[in-house]
Amino acid sequence: MLQNLNIRHLAGFTLLMGVVGCSSPPPQAPAINPAVPDAGSQSRPSVVATTSILCDLTKQVAGETIDLKCLVGRGVDPHLYQPKPEDRKAMDSANLIFYAGYDFDPSLVKLVKATSNPVPKIAVHEVAVPQPILGETHDHGDEKHAHAEGETAPDPHIWHDAQNGIRMVETISNSLEKLIPNHTSLYNNNAQKITAELQQIDTWINSQIATISPAQRKLVTTHDALGYYVKAYGLSFEGALGGFSTEEAPTAARVSELVKEIKSAGVPTIFAETTINPKLIERVAKEAKVKVSDRELFADGLGEPGKDGESYQEML
């Protein structure tokens, strides 16, 4: 596994990246009604996963035992995603719904709450990490998304810490076991395999970080998406262009301030994200007189099948 991984994430020491914002109280994982068709029958249970990361982990745990519907495509920003009519239909007919929570995918959270389908709806991030990192929100520039000055909100980007990824796998596996008890052994085995891989990746990341001088372990991001990565792997967070959500448009003053922070921190290279328009990053790089890497980072979702970052493990 490790030989296929690159050090894209390690580029975060000198990067620009991105992701969500407003808070909601963390729910408890609801009990799942097992009274659905068994996966061994002709009609398999229908499961909806809102984001590419949740979809990938669900697929790895469940295999072919479910009919999986993924809503937000790879390379699409979940913060800005606008649901399609078929998304509502998928939720209305699902036997189980996995969504991120912590307002990572706000339009889909509204859709989850709006459906009259009584099946379990699991906010995976909130169940896996009930005590998230809190950060200060930023003004979105409109009344709809306005926040009070200094207000805090949960950071939804929990998966950037491999240990949190393990908790996500456990949450997904437990939910699937209740949905289809006959496949408990399969789900347990798959979850254990994924967990072993993530433990190995976690160790590998720490070993790579250890090769870098502590004074050089600096992180600058386009939006505040890597808080869990910073905390887990011992980086120094030097600043961000925006808050947790890519929906927050940075002001000219904030761009100027970030340019100063990049120069002060001695960051030589910055990185674009796969789901964010690179023009803003290029502007910052030009003003800061640093280069933009030709390698993009996967901050909010996975890469296309057969390409870099195609799975959660590859993304890390």
Structural commentary:
It is a single chain. The protein folds into two domains: 119 residues, Nitrogenase molybdenum iron protein domain (Rossmann fold); 158 residues, 3-Layer(aba) Sandwich (Rossmann fold). The protein has ten helices and ten strands. The strands form four sheets. A four-stranded parallel sheet has the order 2-1-3-4, sandwiched between helices. The chain is globular and about 60 Å long.
The low-confidence parts are 1-41, 138-147, 242-246
Q: Estimate what percentage of residues fall within beta strands.
A: 5-15%
CATH class of the largest domain: Alpha Beta
Number of domains: 2
CATH topology of the largest domain, which one? Rossmann fold
Q: What integer is the average pLDDT? A: 80
CATH architecture descriptor of the largest domain: 3-Layer(aba) Sandwich
Number of helices: 10
